[in-house]
Design goal:
about 160 residues; alpha/beta; Rossmann fold; two-stranded antiparallel ribbon; 7 helices
Amino acid sequence: MKTLILYDSYTGTTEKCANLLAQNLNDAEVVNISKQKVPSLEAYDLVVLGTYVHAGKISKKIQDFCRKNLEILKTKKIGIFFCMLRGDQGVEEYTKANFSEDLLKAVKVKEYFGGELNYEKMNFFFRFILKQIEKKTKPQLGIKPERISSFAERLKELNVNL
């Protein structure tokens, strides 16, 4: 099964997770939608979309890509992973709020991979807001390698059903 991991990363966390996921899969190509040309989706059986979540919204570039390529994405098996601070309770909410119903019919696996606060890569305004939120909510920080491994195993199981 040929896999495309397509992601957008604001502070580098989603990029780290996309690369860790690729290490757990065979024949996976990793593409940063902000920095690289997206190859033709025709060549892939499985497309994994990785995104950060800020204020309940996913990457605009991932949203635009999904909207523009909806028809072909509907013919693929889709996996989605989120990098965020809220925790796994936000996965269903953010999936439904940010992806079309048509696309969601093709989604076979979704997961939360954890989150980090990389302040040095944020603009002043965003850094200020997150520091205030962090003081109040005390988020569980860090990438969750066990979730990445579990997600990869579930993706590999899809190969049996192609």
